[in-house]
Design a protein that fits this description.
Blueprint: H1 3-10, H2 20-38, H3 59-68, H4 92-103, H5 126-138, H6 157-172
Helix pairs in contact: 2-3, 2-4, 2-6
């Protein structure tokens, strides 16, 4: 388990939602792990320079870097665009998109699903199904025993801890 996650869990209850600031802090650590493991920068420069006025320093510079240099908030519902709303809860759908944006830095992600998802609340958009399928195959995302994904529910600290553990294993296997 990485240090930012340990710090976040130390002050939070297990079922409390993960905040955007906590998630972005962890995603920053994952990015550092990936770049160290692959021995290269994964930056994708953009011309737009954003200022996150609602994010306290020292996190502001890193939040801007994650968007500007890596485009990690691209396509994530209600993320970015100059504000982060750092105390707002992250939904499971937002978490999956943020992780997929990170994974897309090192691998080509499919745009078509290989099979329908076996969840009662699976998205209907084939592109989203293909992306969620990647996380299920990597073992990063897991459904619930009632055959749901609950993508619009807030991500709890317990779910976040499990997700982080699986993500660390996946990143450790990234090939240089």
């Amino acid at each position: 388990m990485s240090l930012p996650l340990v710090a976040a869990l130390a002050v939070a209850t297990a079922d409390a939602p993960v905040t955007r600031l906590e998630f972005v802090t962890q995603e920053s650590a994952w990015l550092d792990t990936l770049e160290t493991r692959l021995h290269k920068s994964l930056k994708r420069p953009k011309e737009t320079i954003l200022v996150y006025v609602d994010v306290p320093e020292p996190f502001r510079a890193r939040a801007v870097s994650l968007e500007r240099d890596y485009r990690l908030y691209e396509g994530v519902d209600r993320f970015g665009y100059g504000t982060l709303d750092p105390n707002r809860a992250v939904t499971r759908r937002q978490a999956t998109q943020l992780i997929l944006n990170l994974l897309s830095l090192v691998e080509t992600l499919p745009t078509e699903p290989s099979a329908p998802l076996d969840f009662t609340d699976a998205p209907r958009d084939p592109f989203e199904v293909a992306r969620i399928e990647v996380l299920l195959q990597h073992g990063i995302l897991a459904g619930f025993p009632d055959k749901t994904l609950q993508l619009d529910a807030p991500l709890s600290h317990t779910q976040f801890a499990a997700l982080c553990d699986r993500m660390q294993h996946d990143l450790a296997e990234a090939r240089p």
